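**User:** My hope is that you can spare some time for a protein that puzzles me. As I understand it, each token names a local backbone shape. I would be glad if you read both lines and explained how they fit together. The protein I mean follows directly.
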Amino acid sequence: MQSGSAPYQFLAGIYLSFWVFTLPAGADTVGEALPVPQSQSAAYEPKVGPNLDPQKTDEGTAETDNDSFDDGSNDPLEPLNRLFFGINEILDFVILRPVAEIYRAVVPDPVRNGVTNVLDNLFAPVVFLNHILQGEPERATATLFRFLMNSTFGLGGLVDVTSEMGYPRYDTDFNETLTAWGVETGPYLVLPLIGPSSFRGGIGFVGDYFADPLNLYLNNRHHRKHRYWLTVRYGSTIISQREKVIETLDRLRENSFDMYVTMRSIRRQREAHMAEKLKSMKTPKETQ
């Protein structure tokens, strides 16, 4: 009996260590809980909870089919997950949602779009690297072109000039890269401040964090006095993404008998959607 529970106790220990280690970077994958197209992305890529992106969500599926999709399996850490889920819900109710509402009321829509564009542009080097690792040179080239053009002619990414030129944004992350490499999803996890994820998603998050040039630069011992910019970035990401899903999360809460199960199901739908997307991207190349 003890030997059977040992793996889960080991996972719980890793999970707690992961929480303590990654908490300062928590917001970077805040848009990953729901089906990706960011970023996905984002992205992602909801990083719902604090991490919900309506552009990545089939709301009809999320609100009507999630119970049938979730049989409760692959959640060996459910007591711990429910604890963190409850903490996230309290933080959302007390802090995130009110701040997101103020952000929406005070900041004009064009400015909010500009903030989103800047945040997306900052993550573009990570997206570029993941496309390379996934064997997608065309998407990697398009992402690099978007980053260079938006960073210069788009005023640091404030304006998305490349979409007007016919270069759409291709979201991806290291979780998708691991999926493309055949890594299994692993147990379901609820990450503090981030929300629904998986063991593979947690590893993917850490990979993205350490692959981000801005993180590497600001965490260098010679530039640590400027690390407050990381707080600005992550805080802006959380509030920006939370503002986008105020109504979506409200509807989910109104229509969910158990919000924890609903969010777990949505996360699993996202994982299935991501796997199908990657499969469809590879199939045409393999049949030529």
